[in-house]
Automatic annotation (TrEMBL):
Transmembrane segments: none annotated. It comes from the Bacteria. GO terms for molecular function: DNA binding; DNA-binding transcription factor activity. Pfam families: GntR, UTRA. The keyword Transcription regulation applies. Keywords: DNA-binding, Transcription, Transcription regulation. This is GntR family transcriptional regulator. The keyword Acetylation does not apply. InterPro entries: Bact_HTH_transcr_reg, Chorismate_lyase_/UTRA_dom_sf, Tscrpt_reg_HTH_GntR, UTRA, WH-like_DNA-bd_sf, WH_DNA-bd_sf.
Length: 260
């Protein structure tokens, strides 16, 4: 039996054949094949499991929609790369990737003293037109482009930041050189389609789904960083711990699932 063959048959019964095949292919994608591996062709799957190609297309299409499989025009269908799971706490990209056993790499795309836009100036508690360090970086993990970061840094707390090597952990640099340990942050997360520039940097198509993280971080009440990161939606996901505690005032969001 080859690596892609699974000793499971599709049988007549109440469960639709496309759903049975979907489960077989899901197990194949999650447990049998490494990321980026081809799955058998529609024709081979139809012959192996004695179903129509319409049934195969339905099963494969559902797993493509779920993100377990990806189609490459003219090449076939492949198992998708595993998403990195991010927990929402204050940690540098470099430290996060190393903790996962991946090799981080950073390319500095822009770094200059400029007057930030009003939103960033307010976040950093700067005067109008007061310059700050604008930093744009491309972050990779094991050579794969994962995120684009565009941030502003307070010259009052981390002056002359542009004179340092910014291809390593920025948080470690700020702690070691400036004696500033970032200890709090407010972060907002949303989804959007990749614009042409960001798509090119990340190696995805324009309009591809991205996770966007906007963070304002500081130390001992002083704002230090106002940064937005665009992460590839096909390689990144967010996990949050939820409880039933409701804030005493202000807007809140509830999460519902399972049985009450």
């Amino acid at each position: 039996m080859s690596r892609t063959e699974i000793a499971t048959e599709i049988v007549e019964g109440p469960k639709p054949k496309h759903a049975q095949l979907r489960d077989i292919l899901r197990r194949m994608a999650e447990h049998e094949l490494p990321p980026g591996s081809p799955i058998p062709s529609e024709r081979d799957l139809a012959e192996q499991y004695r179903v129509s190609r319409i049934t195969v297309r339905a099963a494969v299409g559902q797993l493509v929609a779920e993100g377990l499989l990806t189609r490459a025009k003219g090449r076939g269908t492949f198992t998708a790369r595993r998403r990195l799971d991010v927990q929402l706490y204050l940690e540098s990209f470099t430290e996060d990737m190393r903790r996962r056993g991946l090799t981080p790499a950073t390319e500095v795309l822009a770094c200059a003293e400029e007057a930030p836009p009003a939103e960033a100036a307010t976040a950093l508690d700067l005067m109008p037109n007061e310059p700050a360090c604008r930093l744009v970086r491309l972050r990779r993990a094991d050579g794969v482009p994962l995120a684009v970061e565009r941030g502003w840094y307070s010259p009052r707390v981390v002056p002359d930041l542009d004179r340092h090597d910014l291809t390593t952990s920025l948080y470690t640099l700020i702690a070691d050189h400036y004696g500033v340990q970032l200890d709090h942050a407010a972060q907002t997360v949303w989804a959007e389609g990749a614009d042409p520039e960001t798509a090119k940097l990340l190696g995805v198509r324009t309009g591809s789904p991205l996770l966007v993280f906007h963070r304002v971080a500081g130390s001992q009440g002083r704002p230090v960083e106002a940064m937005t990161s665009w992460y590839r939606g096909d390689l990144y996901q967010v996990t949050m711990q939820l409880d039933r505690t409701v804030p005493e005032s202000g807007p809140h969001h509830s999460a519902k699932g399972g049985t009450p």
